[in-house]
Design a protein that fits this description.
By secondary structure, the protein is an alpha+beta fold. The protein has one domain. The protein is built from four helices and nine strands. It is globular, with a radius of gyration of 16 Å.
Length: about 150
């Protein structure tokens, strides 16, 4: 990925990268106030893709731990699709958190007064990634499409 920090014409490159990964492009009403002045971003199945200086920031919906681990077993996923943006590329199990996929699922946390603890019955997943290469972006998008 090329460095887009401060690049006023960044939208053309962002659109190209999203389209290569088959991620739908969305438009902002005005340019973002960030290191990359983008006015477009990607959105796919509850995940939002925003371009940072040399990588993509992905957030939103939780990626189930089994899919995150499958992604991590792929050399591209392990090295260029970084769980919670961690530069050390740790395995997803180290950062997985409980979540609630639907209202019928168990709550992610169980609380008693001010004390809340993870619910062992809730599934685990990852809700944040940094993606460093086009191949990583393509792979991540493909895994998301498999969830549909």
């Amino acid at each position: 990925m090329i460095n887009l920090a401060g690049n006023a014409g960044c939208d053309a490159q962002i659109k190209r990268e999203l389209e290569l990964a088959k991620i739908p492009v969305r438009c902002l009403s005005s340019a973002a106030h960030s290191e990359v002045p983008y006015s477009i971003y990607g959105e796919l199945s509850g995940f939002t893709f925003k371009r940072a200086w040399y990588y993509w920031e992905v957030s939103g919906r939780y990626l189930p731990l089994d899919i995150a681990e499958e992604l991590y077993r792929d050399p591209v996923g392990r090295n260029f699709v970084r769980v919670v943006g961690h530069i050390g590329c740790p395995p997803p199990s180290q950062w997985a958190r409980p979540y609630r996929p639907t209202p019928n699922d168990p709550p992610a946390y169980v609380c008693s007064g001010d004390n809340c603890v993870p619910n062992p019955a809730a599934p685990l997943g990852i809700d944040s990634y940094h993606i460093d290469t086009q191949a990583g972006l393509d792979l991540f998008a493909e895994k998301i499409r498999q969830l549909q």
